[in-house]
Amino acid sequence: MRLAALLLLATSTVATAEPKPDRAVTSAGNANLETDAHRKGIVLQAGLGGGLILGIGVDGVVGNGPSGTLRLGRVATENALVTLEVDLVTPRHAVAATEDSDTYTDQSGSIMLGGQFYLNQAAWVRLAGGLGVYHGEHRLMGLDDVDLVGPAGAFGAGIEIVRFARWAIGLEMFTIGMINKDGLMSSSGFLVDAIVY
């Protein structure tokens, strides 16, 4: 009698147990829902400001001047973008030894792939890697012009200060390090950004 009661209880429990939801069915059901995320699709970010170049092992590389960045991002998740970016820092140097107070120009640029990760709705950090190039007009200092190429990496952080429906204005700081045959170079910038979602 007890055995029959136990069998009856076990079969009724199995019959009333709810089956686990199928992930594929749930995913397919959500596929056509409209996302409510602030960032969607493509994000375009451009920044202008001031920059600084410092060379370690590269003669005559130091100075400050204008800098800029242009980034094209694709939303990967609600809080992350995959980015393609171009960065440029162009400081000009006065050469005191010349009668006309001539200047020469350093140009440090890079093209990189990376990721931009949002810590909250407005603040973000980014990492990127790619190729860096440098050209320096050093002949006014009695040196040969310098052309260098090497692997480069970037770290940056920023915040969106003013946000609207499809665009924002923000502030950004970044540092790019490049390894080349003569040594190391660092390019940094502090920018005002315009962001279009």
Helix/strand layout:
Elements: H1 2-16, H2 23-30, E1 42-56, E2 62-77, E3 80-89, E4 92-94, E5 103-118, E6 123-136, E7 146-163, E8 167-180, E9 183-196
Antiparallel strand pairs: 1-2, 1-9, 2-3, 3-5, 4-5, 5-6, 6-7, 7-8, 8-9
Output the keywords.
2 helices, 197 residues, mainly beta, 8-stranded antiparallel beta barrel
Describe the structure.
An 8-stranded antiparallel beta barrel has the order 1-2-3-5-6-7-8-9. The chain has 197 residues and is mainly beta. The chain contains 2 helices and 9 strands, in the order H-H-E-E-E-E-E-E-E-E-E. Helix content is 12%, strand content 61%. It has a single domain, classed as Beta Barrel (Porin), CATH 2.40.160. Strand 4 and strand 5 form a beta hairpin. The chain starts with a helix and ends with a strand.
